[in-house]
Design goal:
By secondary structure, the chain is an alpha/beta fold. The chain is about 40% helix and about 20% strand. Strands 6-3-8-2-9-1-11-10 form an 8-stranded mixed β-sheet, with helices on both faces. A 3-stranded mixed β-sheet has the order 5-4-7. Helix 5 (about 150-165) packs across helix 8. The chain is globular, with a radius of gyration of 17 Å. The mean pLDDT is about 90. This is 2,3-dihydroxyphenylpropionate/2,3-dihydroxicinnam ic acid 1,2-dioxygenase. Keywords: Dioxygenase, Oxidoreductase. InterPro entries: Xdiol_dOase_suB (IPR004183).
Length: about 280
Protein backbone atom coordinates (compact mmCIF):
# COMPACT_ATOMS: atom_id res chain seq x y z
CA UNK A 1 0.00 0.00 0.00
CA UNK A 2 1.10 3.61 -0.48
CA UNK A 3 -0.28 6.41 1.63
CA UNK A 4 -1.47 9.64 0.07
CA UNK A 5 0.85 12.45 1.09
CA UNK A 6 0.90 16.24 1.10
CA UNK A 7 4.12 18.09 1.92
CA UNK A 8 4.05 21.62 3.33
CA UNK A 9 7.15 23.56 4.34
CA UNK A 10 6.86 26.86 6.17
CA UNK A 11 9.06 29.27 8.06
CA UNK A 12 8.29 29.99 11.68
CA UNK A 13 9.16 32.97 13.85
CA UNK A 14 8.37 34.10 17.40
CA UNK A 15 8.05 37.59 15.89
CA UNK A 16 4.96 36.46 14.03
CA UNK A 17 3.25 35.69 17.33
CA UNK A 18 4.29 39.02 18.85
CA UNK A 19 2.86 40.84 15.81
CA UNK A 20 -0.69 40.60 17.17
CA UNK A 21 -1.96 43.36 14.87
CA UNK A 22 -0.60 41.47 11.85
CA UNK A 23 1.16 44.57 10.62
CA UNK A 24 4.03 42.65 9.01
CA UNK A 25 4.48 39.59 6.83
CA UNK A 26 1.18 39.96 5.01
CA UNK A 27 2.36 38.17 1.86
CA UNK A 28 3.70 35.35 4.00
CA UNK A 29 0.46 35.14 5.98
CA UNK A 30 -1.56 34.96 2.75
CA UNK A 31 0.60 32.08 1.51
CA UNK A 32 0.24 30.35 4.87
CA UNK A 33 -3.55 30.63 4.58
CA UNK A 34 -3.37 29.02 1.13
CA UNK A 35 -1.35 26.14 2.55
CA UNK A 36 -3.77 25.71 5.47
CA UNK A 37 -6.66 25.50 2.98
CA UNK A 38 -4.83 22.72 1.16
CA UNK A 39 -4.34 20.85 4.44
CA UNK A 40 -8.03 21.20 5.31
CA UNK A 41 -9.09 19.94 1.89
CA UNK A 42 -6.62 17.06 2.12
CA UNK A 43 -8.05 16.14 5.56
CA UNK A 44 -5.15 14.04 6.85
CA UNK A 45 -5.37 11.06 9.14
CA UNK A 46 -1.84 11.73 10.40
CA UNK A 47 0.56 14.67 10.58
CA UNK A 48 4.34 14.21 10.68
CA UNK A 49 6.28 17.34 11.65
CA UNK A 50 10.01 17.63 11.04
CA UNK A 51 11.12 20.37 13.40
CA UNK A 52 14.23 21.72 15.04
CA UNK A 53 14.84 22.57 18.68
CA UNK A 54 15.96 25.90 20.09
CA UNK A 55 18.00 24.24 22.87
CA UNK A 56 14.95 23.71 25.04
CA UNK A 57 13.94 20.06 24.67
CA UNK A 58 17.51 18.97 23.94
CA UNK A 59 20.28 20.74 25.82
CA UNK A 60 22.54 18.22 27.55
CA UNK A 61 21.89 15.30 25.22
CA UNK A 62 21.30 16.28 21.59
CA UNK A 63 20.31 13.56 19.12
CA UNK A 64 20.82 14.09 15.42
CA UNK A 65 17.31 12.65 14.90
CA UNK A 66 14.57 11.89 17.40
CA UNK A 67 11.03 10.53 17.34
CA UNK A 68 8.60 11.66 20.04
CA UNK A 69 6.50 8.87 21.50
CA UNK A 70 4.72 11.46 23.65
CA UNK A 71 5.08 15.23 23.69
CA UNK A 72 3.65 18.50 24.92
CA UNK A 73 3.93 22.09 23.74
CA UNK A 74 5.50 24.69 26.01
CA UNK A 75 3.62 27.86 26.91
CA UNK A 76 5.01 30.73 24.84
CA UNK A 77 3.79 34.26 24.33
CA UNK A 78 0.01 34.35 24.26
CA UNK A 79 -0.30 30.57 23.83
CA UNK A 80 -0.80 28.20 26.77
CA UNK A 81 0.87 24.84 27.07
CA UNK A 82 -0.89 21.78 25.70
CA UNK A 83 -0.48 18.14 24.81
CA UNK A 84 -0.04 16.71 21.34
CA UNK A 85 -2.05 13.66 20.30
CA UNK A 86 0.92 11.45 19.46
CA UNK A 87 -0.16 7.95 18.30
CA UNK A 88 2.27 5.89 20.42
CA UNK A 89 2.05 2.64 18.48
CA UNK A 90 2.67 4.31 15.13
CA UNK A 91 5.49 6.43 16.56
CA UNK A 92 7.15 3.36 18.03
CA UNK A 93 6.83 1.47 14.76
CA UNK A 94 8.48 4.43 13.02
CA UNK A 95 11.37 4.23 15.50
CA UNK A 96 11.75 0.51 14.88
CA UNK A 97 11.61 0.98 11.11
CA UNK A 98 14.33 3.64 11.22
CA UNK A 99 16.56 1.53 13.47
CA UNK A 100 16.25 -1.40 11.09
CA UNK A 101 16.99 1.01 8.24
CA UNK A 102 20.30 2.04 9.80
CA UNK A 103 19.35 5.22 11.71
CA UNK A 104 20.13 5.28 15.43
CA UNK A 105 17.25 7.56 16.36
CA UNK A 106 16.42 8.72 19.87
CA UNK A 107 13.03 7.59 21.17
CA UNK A 108 11.75 10.57 23.19
CA UNK A 109 9.04 10.49 25.84
CA UNK A 110 7.22 13.42 27.43
CA UNK A 111 9.37 16.07 25.76
CA UNK A 112 8.36 19.73 25.82
CA UNK A 113 8.51 21.31 22.36
CA UNK A 114 8.42 25.00 21.52
CA UNK A 115 7.13 27.13 18.64
CA UNK A 116 9.21 25.18 16.12
CA UNK A 117 6.47 22.55 16.32
CA UNK A 118 3.57 24.51 17.81
CA UNK A 119 3.46 27.31 15.25
CA UNK A 120 3.13 25.15 12.10
CA UNK A 121 0.61 22.87 13.78
CA UNK A 122 -1.58 25.80 14.83
CA UNK A 123 -1.16 27.64 11.52
CA UNK A 124 -1.64 24.69 9.17
CA UNK A 125 -3.64 22.05 11.07
CA UNK A 126 -5.64 23.81 13.80
CA UNK A 127 -5.63 23.19 17.53
CA UNK A 128 -2.79 21.15 18.98
CA UNK A 129 -4.88 17.99 19.42
CA UNK A 130 -7.01 18.26 16.27
CA UNK A 131 -5.03 15.56 14.47
CA UNK A 132 -2.64 12.78 15.50
CA UNK A 133 0.88 14.21 15.22
CA UNK A 134 4.28 12.53 15.24
CA UNK A 135 7.01 15.08 16.01
CA UNK A 136 10.33 14.24 14.35
CA UNK A 137 13.23 16.23 15.74
CA UNK A 138 16.17 17.12 13.51
CA UNK A 139 19.16 18.77 15.19
CA UNK A 140 19.47 22.20 13.61
CA UNK A 141 20.89 24.15 16.57
CA UNK A 142 23.73 22.45 18.39
CA UNK A 143 26.92 21.50 16.56
CA UNK A 144 27.83 19.07 15.21
CA UNK A 145 24.80 19.00 12.90
CA UNK A 146 23.79 16.15 10.58
CA UNK A 147 25.08 16.67 7.06
CA UNK A 148 22.65 17.36 4.24
CA UNK A 149 23.11 13.95 2.63
CA UNK A 150 22.21 12.17 5.84
CA UNK A 151 19.18 14.39 6.35
CA UNK A 152 17.92 13.53 2.86
CA UNK A 153 18.45 9.83 3.50
CA UNK A 154 16.68 10.08 6.85
CA UNK A 155 13.66 11.81 5.31
CA UNK A 156 13.48 9.17 2.58
CA UNK A 157 13.53 6.44 5.24
CA UNK A 158 10.59 8.08 7.01
CA UNK A 159 8.85 8.18 3.63
CA UNK A 160 9.35 4.44 3.18
CA UNK A 161 7.64 3.89 6.53
CA UNK A 162 4.73 6.08 5.48
CA UNK A 163 4.46 4.05 2.26
CA UNK A 164 3.32 1.14 4.41
CA UNK A 165 0.53 3.04 6.14
CA UNK A 166 -3.01 3.16 4.83
CA UNK A 167 -3.35 6.76 6.00
CA UNK A 168 -3.51 10.17 4.41
CA UNK A 169 -0.48 12.00 5.78
CA UNK A 170 0.57 15.63 5.83
CA UNK A 171 4.33 15.99 6.18
CA UNK A 172 5.49 19.37 7.48
CA UNK A 173 8.95 20.86 7.43
CA UNK A 174 9.28 23.96 9.59
CA UNK A 175 11.97 26.57 10.06
CA UNK A 176 14.27 28.89 8.14
CA UNK A 177 14.83 30.36 5.80
CA UNK A 178 17.72 32.81 6.25
CA UNK A 179 18.00 34.29 9.73
CA UNK A 180 20.53 34.76 12.51
CA UNK A 181 18.81 34.49 15.90
CA UNK A 182 21.16 36.01 18.48
CA UNK A 183 20.49 33.16 20.92
CA UNK A 184 21.66 30.58 18.36
CA UNK A 185 24.70 32.51 17.21
CA UNK A 186 26.29 31.82 20.60
CA UNK A 187 27.29 28.32 21.67
CA UNK A 188 25.61 28.50 25.08
CA UNK A 189 23.39 25.49 25.62
CA UNK A 190 21.84 26.16 29.02
CA UNK A 191 20.31 29.63 28.81
CA UNK A 192 17.57 30.64 31.22
CA UNK A 193 14.59 32.57 29.90
CA UNK A 194 15.93 35.90 31.18
CA UNK A 195 19.39 35.30 29.70
CA UNK A 196 17.87 34.28 26.39
CA UNK A 197 15.66 37.37 26.31
CA UNK A 198 18.61 39.69 26.98
CA UNK A 199 20.78 38.13 24.27
CA UNK A 200 17.93 38.40 21.79
CA UNK A 201 17.14 42.02 22.70
CA UNK A 202 20.80 43.08 22.46
CA UNK A 203 21.32 41.36 19.13
CA UNK A 204 18.01 42.18 17.44
CA UNK A 205 19.06 45.36 15.56
CA UNK A 206 21.90 43.53 13.81
CA UNK A 207 19.80 40.40 13.23
CA UNK A 208 17.29 42.47 11.23
CA UNK A 209 20.02 43.12 8.64
CA UNK A 210 21.00 39.48 8.14
CA UNK A 211 18.20 38.14 5.92
CA UNK A 212 19.66 36.77 2.68
CA UNK A 213 16.98 36.75 -0.07
CA UNK A 214 19.42 35.41 -2.67
CA UNK A 215 20.09 32.29 -0.61
CA UNK A 216 16.39 31.92 0.15
CA UNK A 217 15.62 32.04 -3.57
CA UNK A 218 18.15 29.28 -4.23
CA UNK A 219 16.50 27.06 -1.61
CA UNK A 220 13.02 27.64 -3.00
CA UNK A 221 14.16 26.97 -6.57
CA UNK A 222 15.91 23.75 -5.54
CA UNK A 223 12.82 22.59 -3.62
CA UNK A 224 10.54 23.35 -6.57
CA UNK A 225 12.80 21.33 -8.90
CA UNK A 226 13.50 18.75 -6.18
CA UNK A 227 17.23 19.04 -6.85
CA UNK A 228 18.62 16.95 -4.01
CA UNK A 229 22.26 17.61 -4.85
CA UNK A 230 21.68 21.36 -4.77
CA UNK A 231 19.71 21.11 -1.52
CA UNK A 232 22.46 19.08 0.14
CA UNK A 233 24.98 21.77 -0.77
CA UNK A 234 22.71 24.54 0.49
CA UNK A 235 22.20 22.71 3.79
CA UNK A 236 25.90 22.11 4.33
CA UNK A 237 26.71 25.79 3.78
CA UNK A 238 23.59 27.25 5.39
CA UNK A 239 25.17 28.80 8.47
CA UNK A 240 28.03 30.43 6.59
CA UNK A 241 25.80 31.89 3.91
CA UNK A 242 22.53 32.65 5.70
CA UNK A 243 22.92 32.52 9.49
CA UNK A 244 22.49 29.99 12.29
CA UNK A 245 18.73 29.89 11.80
CA UNK A 246 19.17 28.84 8.18
CA UNK A 247 20.33 25.45 9.49
CA UNK A 248 16.61 24.72 9.95
CA UNK A 249 16.32 24.20 6.21
CA UNK A 250 17.26 20.63 7.11
CA UNK A 251 13.63 20.13 8.05
CA UNK A 252 12.55 21.20 4.54
CA UNK A 253 14.93 18.71 2.96
CA UNK A 254 13.75 15.91 5.26
CA UNK A 255 10.07 16.67 4.65
CA UNK A 256 10.51 16.79 0.88
CA UNK A 257 12.35 13.48 0.92
CA UNK A 258 9.65 11.93 3.13
CA UNK A 259 7.09 13.11 0.59
CA UNK A 260 8.67 10.90 -2.04
CA UNK A 261 10.86 13.49 -3.73
CA UNK A 262 8.10 15.36 -5.50
CA UNK A 263 8.61 19.06 -6.26
CA UNK A 264 7.68 21.32 -3.35
CA UNK A 265 6.81 24.64 -4.96
CA UNK A 266 6.71 28.07 -3.28
CA UNK A 267 3.35 29.64 -2.48
CA UNK A 268 4.91 32.84 -1.23
CA UNK A 269 8.09 34.47 0.05
CA UNK A 270 8.71 37.63 2.01
CA UNK A 271 11.75 38.91 3.90
CA UNK A 272 10.40 40.32 7.17
CA UNK A 273 13.09 42.31 9.02
CA UNK A 274 10.76 42.82 11.99
CA UNK A 275 10.79 39.03 12.43
CA UNK A 276 14.52 38.81 11.42
CA UNK A 277 13.67 36.06 8.92
CA UNK A 278 13.17 35.26 5.28
CA UNK A 279 9.64 33.82 5.51
CA UNK A 280 8.40 31.32 2.93
CA UNK A 281 5.72 28.69 2.37
CA UNK A 282 5.95 25.86 -0.15
CA UNK A 283 3.79 22.82 -0.88
CA UNK A 284 3.71 19.75 -3.08
CA UNK A 285 1.07 19.59 -5.81
Amino acid sequence: MTSERLVVCASHSPGKERDVEQAFGRRFRAALDMAADRVRQFDPDLVVVFGGDHRRAFRHVVPAFGIALSASILAEGRHPSGDLDVPPDTARLLCEHLLWDGFDVAACRDIGLDHAFAQPIRDLVGELADKPVIPVAVNCATAPLPRGRRVAEFGAAVGRFLDGLDERTVVIGTGGLSHSPPSLEVDTYDLGDEQRAKIIADGMPEARTKIRPDWDAEVLQAMSAWDVERLVGLVDNAHARAGAGANEVRTWLAAGAAGGGRPVSPLGYEPVPEWITGMAVAASS
